[in-house]
Amino acid sequence: MTRADKILLAGLLLVSLLSVAAAGSRFFLLSGKSEPLQAVIMSQGKQVRRINLSAGGRSSFAVQGRSGYSTVEIEGGRIRMLNAPCSGQICVKQGWIEHSGQTIVCIPEEMLIRIEGAAPVDAVTR
Amino acid sequence: MIRRNYILLTLFLLVAGLCIFQYSRRTCEYRSDQFLMDTLVSIKAYGTNAGTVKNAVDAAYVEMHRIAELADGFPKPGTAAWNSSDVCRINEQAGIKPVTVHKDVIAMVTLARKYFELSNGAFDVTIDPVMDQWGFGGENPHIPPPGALGTALALVDSRNLLIDEQARTVFLRTKGMKLDLGAVAKGYATEKAAEVLTRHGITKALIDAGGNIRVLGRNVRDTPWKIGIKDPRKSEAIIAVVSMENAAAVTSGDYYRHFESGGKRYHHILDPRTGYPANQNMSATVVTRDAGLADVLSTVFFVLSPEKALEMAGRIPGVELFLVTADGQIRHSPALNSRLEIKEGSAYHYDPSR
After folding, report:
1. Do B229 and B339 fall into the same domain?
2. CATH number where B130 lies
3. Does B150 share its domain with B229?
4. Residues of A in contact with B230 (CB under 8 A)
5. A113 vs chain B: nearest CA distance in angstroms?
6. The pLDDT of residue A76 is above 90
7. H or E stretch including B137?
8. Quick check: is B84 in a domain?
9. Which of A2, B55, B80, B351 is packed most tightly, with the most Cβ within 10 A?
10. Domain's final residue, options B144, B179, B214
């Protein structure tokens, strides 16, 4: 083997190792060690917004639900349902959520706010 | 020289092939959320083919919708939803004649009837007339007048719930009796959804039906799924974490649909023996393989006294119980020991030696 062949061989080995690592990294991504916190807002089965909570800052916006508009507020990495046209107001009374895996659900309006990112548990029985 | 190049080319193709193989085998996740059975149902499934995983999850939702329609107790008479609900027809024919129903309804009613007997009446799917008196289904729940409660309670008795498995009929013997599969249908539908996923070749999935959890296999990190148990008094907090594979976890608690009157808390899980909210526990979590059984048993154990609940759980193979009692104690089946992690700093009393 010439010197060039050895370099080529080393190169190929490097590529193969990298590819195996790349395939494995998908698992690391899903395990979510360094994932930033994101809030996903769904209405009637469709995702209407995805917001990076780790970025901080303050904002509020309206989301159309089943019977009208609800207002969602974000402040300092937390998110809440500020007001909603539903009768029970369970979603509004729940207040702020800020950890991965937490959800605010409004059943009458068919709205869902979920925080995604590195979660301590896969789900919660309640 | 030419020959050496062949060796290198072969090597290169081998590596490229390996890359493609690895790429095709990478795990993909499909996640979907749907509102059904008065709650949010989230299904997360994993596989190597995105299309297959999506098809499996879609089919699982179709199955859950089907069970939901059969068991729906609240649609208006005359509507399409009313016509497809076996429960509505059973209630309409109470005291008149047996009703032919779908085999899934037979399965749910039989399960409910079995635990009515095993719990000596602490669990009863004919509780609906009493529920109506409390108004838990509506906007303004309230303490019912004792006379009306007594009249309603007299109708509650699963011994008058007659099931003919051969003829596939269900009959409520007394006029005015009402069947409510609320404590059974969600868990049963969850288990049927898990069966559909398995039939589609899915080996890793999590179904979260409003806090009723059913997992297939292990999680994506290839470790047991970690399922938190809600703190019954602190919203958004977890009291314990249980590790599980191929199992269900369902909790019944006193913190849903409750109201306060005269400084007392009234919630919607009624003790069929008294007609009043069960008051021995704050929450009962059941871990077992079948989500339908877990759903029924979580209500049974929530209503029973802690001692009776733990004793009964110990007698059913493969059933594990985690209780937060009314006086703030954590109690659980010995079998949970190795898979349970109690959260530090919780406001409850826990004696691991008990």
Report:
1. yes
2. 1.10.3980.10
3. no
4. 124-126
5. 11
6. no
7. none
8. no
9. B55
10. B179
For residues A98 and A46, what is the distance between their CA atoms, to the nearest angstrom? 22
> Nearest-CA neighbor of B65 among B96, B101, B34?
B34
What's CA A90's distance to the chain center, in Å?
22
- Which chain A residues touch B if contact means CB-CB below 8 Å? 1, 5, 8-9, 12, 15-16, 19-20, 22-23, 26-27, 30-31, 42, 44-45, 87, 94-95, 97, 99, 101-103, 105, 107, 110, 112, 120-126
Instruction: Give the CATH number, domain containing residue B243.
Output: 3.10.520.10
Domain limits for position B336: 224-354
Amino acid letter at B344?
Answer: E
| Tally of structural domains, chain B | 2
Of B163, B179, B195, the residue at which a domain comes to its end is B179
Question: What is the ipTM score, two decimals?
Answer: 0.84
Looking at residue B96, its pLDDT comes to 98
Q: Do A125 and B22 touch (CB under 8 A)?
A: no
Contacts of A4 in chain B (CB under 8 A): none
Kindly report, residue by residue over B214-233, the tens digit of the pLDDT.
999 999 889 999 999 999 99
Alpha-carbon distance of B107 to B267, in angstroms, equals 28
CB atoms within 10 A of CB B220: 20
Which phi and psi angles does B64 have, rounded to 5°?
Answer: -65, -40
Class of domain A38-116: mainly beta
Same domain, yes or no: B352 and B283: yes
* Chain B nearest-CA residue for A97: B236
Are A120 and B226 in contact (CB < 8 Å)?
A: yes
Q: Express each pLDDT in B296-335 by its tens digit.
A: 999 999 999 999 999 999 999 999 999 999 999 999 999 9
> In this structure, are B228 and B347 located in the same domain?
yes
Query: Is B298 a member of any domain?
Result: yes
Q: For residue B38, which residues of chain A lie inside 8 Å, CB to CB?
A: 107
Q: CB of B112 within 8 A of CB of B123? A: yes
- Identify whether B284 is part of a domain: yes
**DSSP assigned state of B76:** P
The closest alpha carbon to B202, from B186, B188, B216, B223, belongs to B216
Q: Is residue B202 part of a domain?
A: no
Among chain B residues, CA nearest to A88: B139
Tell whether the model's pLDDT for residue A30 goes beyond 60.
no
What Cα–Cα distance (Å) separates residue B277 from each residue in A84, B165, B253?
A: 30, 32, 11
Residue B35: which of A12, A15, A110 has the nearest Cβ? A110
Question: In chain A, what are the domain boundaries?
Answer: 1-31, 38-116
Nearest Cα to Cα of residue B196 among B21, B36, B20, B55:
B55
Distance CA(B244)–CA(B233), nearest Å, equals: 24
Query: What's the N-to-C CA distance of chain B in angstroms?
Result: 78
